[in-house]
Amino acid sequence: MLRNLKRIWPYLWKYRRGWAVGLSSLILKDVTGALLPLVVRYAIDALTSGKRLQVIAGLALLLIAVSLVKGFFQYWMRLILVGISRDVEYDIRNDLFGRLVTLSPGFFARSQTGDLMARSTNDLNAVRMMLGPGIMYWTETSLTFLLAIGIMVFSDWRLALLALLPAPLVSFNVIFFGQRIHSRFQKIQEMFSDISSRVQENLSGVRMVRAFAQEDAEIRRFEKLNRAYIAQNLRLARLQGTFEPLLEALIGLTFVAVLWAGGRQVLQHRISLGSFVMFNTYMSILVWPMIALGWVVNLMQRGTASLTRILEILDQVPAIATPPDPAPCGEVRGDISFENVTVEYPAGRALGPIDLTIRAGSTVAIVGRTGSGKSTLVNLIPRLLDPNAGVVRLDGIDARRLDLQSLRAQIGMVPQETFLFSATIAENIAFGMETATREAVESAAELAGLASDIEGFPNGFETMVGERGLTLSGGQKQRTAIARALVLNPRILILDDALSSVDTLTEDRILSGLAHVVAGRTVILISHRVSTVRSADEIVVLDKGRIVERGTHEELIARAGYYADLAQKQTLEEELEAI
Ligand code: ADP
Ligand code: MG
How far does the centroid of ligand 1 lie from the alpha carbon of residue 351, in Å? Predict the structure, then answer.
């Protein structure tokens, strides 16, 4: 709890001026509010003792004035304090998003998307409710209690004692129910995460669900989850439903007691009618804080639970980040070397040990069966992954010593699986470089062999693609990804099976178009088409994470190993196709 407070403190401190003004308004509002019953007492006593009308009219005016001042401060209190909670929410939401986009694949493998979504929406809202209305009503009610009780004790301590008799009972109630409400709420929040995850998975995998005719089964499973969620919510509602009437009954009893004891004292002329009415007014002023107290306790408990869940994300340290003292990284030449590199996934070793040097400006092809570690190897270069042992060097410098942003800016990566954002095709191509000119985007599209496709799109380069737009074919997506990498004008270009969904003819056309662009740059080409890789300076064959063959096309054909086999099979296929 204290640790959480320390963690959230900078977010609050940032708005210290606002807090000061807001809390001052709150205090002034409470103080003027507490003065009102005093004025009422004088007014009534003035009436009963037969004072002149002028005095009474004066007191009435005073009543109005005090109410106006109270209303004025109440307005500013709400506006400022609730406003700050929105500001803090905004800051935390930005930080959450900023953290989520820097976290490494391992974190996302451990987390469910729905759960992360729930934390960034529901939990964030609970935290805002705690920081805004929570803190505001907490302070307001405590202060009102103190002021009202103080004045009551001062004017008649015996009557005040009577009025406060049920207070311990009320506290007991609030604490007893508060804890139970809290734990039930936490369970509800967890269930909401489960439901979100379920929905998200079903939407992402909607084709699978249909293809395997699992709609009914999924709906049934979802209904079960949904019903459990409702049941849990009803349990909370039952608890709250018992809590509030109990509280009100206690308050009602207090009123009866004060009416009886106070009324007798008025009849015996021991206190004035004005004092008696004042007492009752204070009591009715106290009703709202007493009820609000339970609600506020609830808000605070929800808020702290949610804050813990949010801090769990904010406290995640990105496993892959720029070191505190990065080595200077200007324009790289493009030498890449792997020294004794191994990569382990939870399931076991996927790569290595690997020793491989790629000279700047050369083209290296990597071939191998699915799962042989090709993608793992190239993902090490832009540090999408760090090796478990060994070093990856760029121009002789350990990649982990470089500034991550500048390192990645030099590398054009076309991953095996591409993703298009819900944006225009031009925006998708310029994704890595928002400042790219239209000419740059168009020439990248031309080089990637995408230009003629785009001409056929309804709005050309302004056509919306992705989830909320045109659905592109696999080959078009891959070529968009290539254009995206080319726009960066990178020193190092990595094509991870980037042309697998494109026919051989188009592939040849794209590659020959690329040939003069990539001259002088380091290119790493993953493919299983011999026709694609044959002209590379070096071909590396991976198997089970190890390099098993390497050399030029001719050398590898002469070795009669995996590569030679592959070449033979593909020549055969081509010949068959030709027939
Ligand atoms: P390739 O690109 O040659 O098909 P990969 O590098 O994708 O091979 O995968 C190499 C091995 O590592 C495979 O056995 C694969 O199952 C495993 N692997 C790849 N990515 C992950 C991951 N994110 N988590 C766990 N295992 C992985
Ligand atoms: Mg791969």
Answer: 9
